[in-house]
Amino acid sequence: MKDKSLVSIIMNCYNGEKYLYESIQSIINQKYKNWELIFWDNKSTDNSAKIFKSFKDSRLKYFFSDKKTVLYKARNLAIKKAKGEFIAFLDVDDIWSKDKLSKQIPKFTNKKVGLVYSNFYKYFQKNKKKEIAYKNNLPAGYIAKQIIEKYQVGFLTVVLRKKFLIKEKVFDFEYDLIADYDFILNFSKKHYFECINQPLAFYRIHSNQLQKIEMINQAKQYCRWIKNKNILKKFREYNLNSIKKKYDYFQLIKDLDKNKLKIFWKIFKKQDYSNFIKITALVFFPNKIIYDFIENV
After folding, report:
1. pLDDT of residue 290
2. Which of 48, 104, 106, 197 might form a disulfide with 44, Cβ 3.0–4.6 angstroms?
3. Which of 123, 136, 173 is nearest to 12 (CA)?
4. Is 145 exposed, middle or buried (0-12, 13-18, 19+ CB in 10 A)?
């Protein structure tokens, strides 16, 4: 399968000029050469298009959206342009190691494999340090049980077999902030996952990602997702304690912009000191302090 199968790399961009050159260069540098980059410009107003067009490579394909959409609707639209047998994803602020595709694509020799993922590094932009995301061996096979108990699929590492994406709408963009989790969880019920324990990508962590309002919006989405998609019933054959625990936490987070005293009272009644510490940080600490704390944990 070496360099024979086309890989379509989806890169969605909205005003991503800051790290864009480095991200695209990490694709150019791949040892595996048979790829195309589907660059979906979601109506950027910065220099993103100029940076993209500075690369003179016929494998780079530029598409400008008719209107700005949420990320996962944009990803659905970009996938429609893909001609490859496999689909991969890279955001404009992340990068791949040069041997990422060359190590992953051979795993698809097994025809039942629907997805290959790997470990990755967390790269802290402020102090230029990196740390491995997962220190344990990653699970392979039909791993819905493991994903529910401990989610360890870095989406920037995912490569999919395109023919297994049978739906017109690959991602449910109604839940845009958790659409990758929703997709991976559902995909894992039906398809075999392979993994590479070696880190093959760098997930860049910077302060712009850690906005309290986004955390609250994600919590609201997660709670809606649990209820509207009847997740507890759909996956009832698995141990759902971790999902229930996260749901209870997000039930508190989603109301942070309303009645903080009521939330703290609920936590004290349950003697839930772990959530008390987390929510106190969200309520009282500036974004910068939260970022510095996360960066040095």
Report:
1. 46
2. 48
3. 173
4. middle
- 2 is a domain residue: no
Scan for tokens 């598409």, then name that residue.
63
Q: Are residues 191 and 218 in the same domain?
A: no
| Number of domains composing the chain | 2
Are 172 and 227 within one domain?
no
Same domain for 160 and 102: yes
**Residues in Cβ contact with 143 at an 8 Å cutoff, skipping those fewer than 6 apart:** 188, 193
Provide the pLDDT confidence category of residue 255 given band limits of 50, 70 and 90. confident
C-alpha span between 101 and 86 (Å, rounded): 11
Quote the CA–CA distance of 297 and 292 in Å, as a whole number: 9
Report the length, in residues, of the chain: 297
Give me the phi and psi of 243, to 5 degrees please.
-65, -40
Q: Give the global pTM.
A: 0.87
CA distance linking residue 234 with residue 24, whole number of Å: 39
Domain presence at residue 135: yes
Of 106, 291, 103, 276, the residue nearest 209 (C-alpha): 291
Separation between Cα atoms, residue 235 and residue 242, nearest integer Å = 12
Last residue of a domain, one of 158, 185, 205: 205
Q: Which residues of 111-136 are buried (b: 16+ CB within 10 A; e: fewer)?
A: eebbbbbbbbbbbbbeeeebeebeee
Q: State what percent of residues in the chain have pLDDT above 90.
A: 73
pLDDT-derived band of residue 214, with 50, 70 and 90 as boundaries? confident
Mean pLDDT, residues 28-32 taken together: 98
The confidence score (pLDDT) of residue 251 equals: 82
Residues 273 and 166 in one domain: no
Asked if residue 87 lies in contact with residue 170, where contact means CB atoms within 8 angstroms, the answer is no
**Contact predicate 77/48, CB 8 Å:** no
The total of other beta-carbon atoms located within 10 Å of residue 61's CB is 18
